[in-house]
Amino acid sequence: MNFILHLLLDAAVIFGLAYLMPQIDVKNFGTALLIAFLLAVLNYFVGWIIRVPLDLVTFFLLSGLVRLVVTALMLKLIDKFMDSFTIAGFWPALVIAVAVAVAGSLIDRSAPSEEMVKSGYVVMEHAKIWLAA
């Protein structure tokens, strides 16, 4: 469920930035959803191959920055393979990477943890809201 939520939010961020920035062109929301899926798959299977040597070079001090740059590189790679998605330059790809990272961290921060669900805290909060209404 969290993966689907991440995909939908990433697609919305990509599509929204394409609307705001003239350097980014996305044909439709379906294309943005495909871009978000490909970005997730590439970051999972290929991104770590690029991230590990760069993290070793920076002694893991810049791992967040390395992750953003690798995500931007993955976006440029997706741009090369898809005709319905265009990014003019590296900086717009980096802007998308930052926006996707911020949106993902907001989702991860707002999602209840396993401990909260197991303890019943989340259910109790919903019950408090229902009782208050």
Automatic annotation (TrEMBL):
Protein name, as recorded: Phage holin family protein
Membrane-spanning intervals of the chain: 6-22, 29-50, 56-75, 87-107
Keywords, alphabetical: Membrane, Transmembrane, Transmembrane helix
A Pfam family recorded for this sequence: Phage_holin_4_2
Native organism: Spirosoma rhododendri
InterPro entries xref list: Phage_holin_4_2
